[in-house]
Amino acid sequence: MKRIPFVLIAAVLAFSLSACGTSKQTQPPAQQPATETPAAEKPATETPSTTPSGSYDAATAETMFKNTCAGCHGQTLEGAVGPNLQKIGSQLNKEQILGILEKGKGSMPPGLVKGKDAENIAAWLADKK
């Protein structure tokens, strides 16, 4: 009888910890791929990026963040298990944020997002000042 509560506790703990490590891939809208959209085709309502490395897709970055990172950093970047990221751009630049995404830091595992998705999120977070 003592094993049943232990197994239940272990299952709950494993489930709750897996929330921070999920790597869901979001599907871009069918009419235009999010990571390959030229800057000229972006909607006029989107503000241009001020990052020196070029533009990024803020809507895609936010969606990717909410699907991959918000479990630990909160839906509005307020922090939860992970640190608050609401003003991370005033502390770290895009390259530093990209390095953390690639290599991990503290309890954050490396490679939760990769490639163009990681660059897009890093640029989006670098603008949070």
TrEMBL record:
**Could you say which residues form the signal peptide?**
1-21
Q: Which Pfam families match?
A: Cytochrome_CBB3 (PF13442)
**Has keyword Iron?**
yes
- State the source organism's domain of life: Bacteria
Keywords (A to Z) from UniProt = Electron transport, Heme, Iron, Metal-binding, Signal, Transport
Q: Which Gene3D superfamilies match?
A: Cytochrome c-like domain
Q: Name the InterPro entries on file.
A: Cyt_c-like_dom, Cyt_c-like_dom_sf, Cyt_c_BACSU-c550-type, Cytochrome_c550/c551-like
Q: Which residues form the Cytochrome c domain?
A: 56-129
Output compositional bias ranges, type Low complexity.
25-52
> Could you tell me which residues belong to the region Disordered?
22-57
Q: Note whether Ribosomal protein occurs among the keywords.
A: no
Q: What is this protein called?
A: Cytochrome C
- What species is this protein from? Brevibacillus porteri
